[in-house]
Amino acid sequence: MSEAYFRVESGALGPEENFLSLDDILMSHEKLPVRTEIPMPRLGAFFLDRSGGSETDNAIPQTFIGRFRRIMDSSQNAYNEDTSALVARLDEMERGLFQTGQKGLNDFQCWEKGQASQITASNLVQNYKKRKFTDMED
Amino acid sequence: MLCEKAMELVRELHRAAEGRLPAFNEDGLRQVLEEMKALYEQNQSDVNEAKSGGRSDLIPTIRFRHCSLLRNQRCALAYLYDRLLRIRALRWEYGSVLPSALRFHMSAEEMEWFNHYKKSLATYMRSLGGEEGLDITQDMKPPKSLYIEHFLPRWKCEQLIRQGVLEHVLS
After folding, report:
1. Chain A interface disruption, residue of B44, B59, B72, B74, most A CBs within 10 A
2. Is residue B169 part of a domain?
3. What is the pLDDT of residue A40?
4. Any idea what the CATH number is for the domain that residue B90 is in?
5. CB nearest A26 (choices: B2, B14, B91)
6. Cα angle B134-B135-B138, degrees, rounded to a multiple of 5
7. Alpha carbon of residue B77 to chain centroid
8. Considering the entire predicted model, what is its pTM?
9. B93 touching chain A per CB within 8 A
10. Which residue, A116, A129, B79, B100, could crosslink A111 as a Cys pair with Cβ 3.0–4.6 Å?
11. How many whole angstroms separate alpha carbon B118 and alpha carbon A127?
12. Is B104 inside a domain boundary?
């Protein structure tokens, strides 16, 4: 749809986030394992006691590694297929990763077929070239 | 969990494929504001207690609630702002009269904003291009060819054709 819709870009590549960027808000919405160093009274359900043993300390990185690897594998090997089953259980960021992998795969296939160097000249240039030809034929 | 409703608003908009305007989530926004009100009031009361009742142990709690308030505020503002960006784009895509399906997706305030934007744009366009103004929402893509075709009487253009300024196009 909209070519006139210019969303607030992510500040991810710059010095800081953009306050109004939806991407940045989603990106900064992570759940991190924490330990309460001092008590915070009256917050009720928000701070249930959890014990942090070394097993749980490693669970998050391990989960991430596993998911990341699976996304890489599946995105790099599903060529011209229905990928809906593969992305069904991924969150937005993971879907973005998957799409990037797919693009890489498609670009590579293009290159293998020798289509990578196929650039479409702009219409202006094409028309100009055509005109030059007719001049010569005259 | 705090800020869940606010995040839901942000996700809802993020999911709406480029530029599509989902219905205004009045209910969702109301819940975010209610959560903010509750956090604010709890903090007001705890701040008083911390100051006059010597309960400095409440300060971490107060700071935590304040963070949640800021987060909710950020989400709500980003939600409203992004919607305005989409609504602005509608003027350029659909023109000044929107299909009713889209109008139903806007809040009253958003409709008002759209009307103001339309007016500003119209005033600006009238100030361009002399007498009749210039509709800059038309012809937004440059022409395929640099050459514009006219019909001109021969006596006017023969010279110019010779000089290579004009080209005689047959057909």
Report:
1. B74
2. no
3. 87
4. 1.20.58.1030
5. B14
6. 135
7. 12
8. 0.66
9. yes
10. A116
11. 37
12. yes
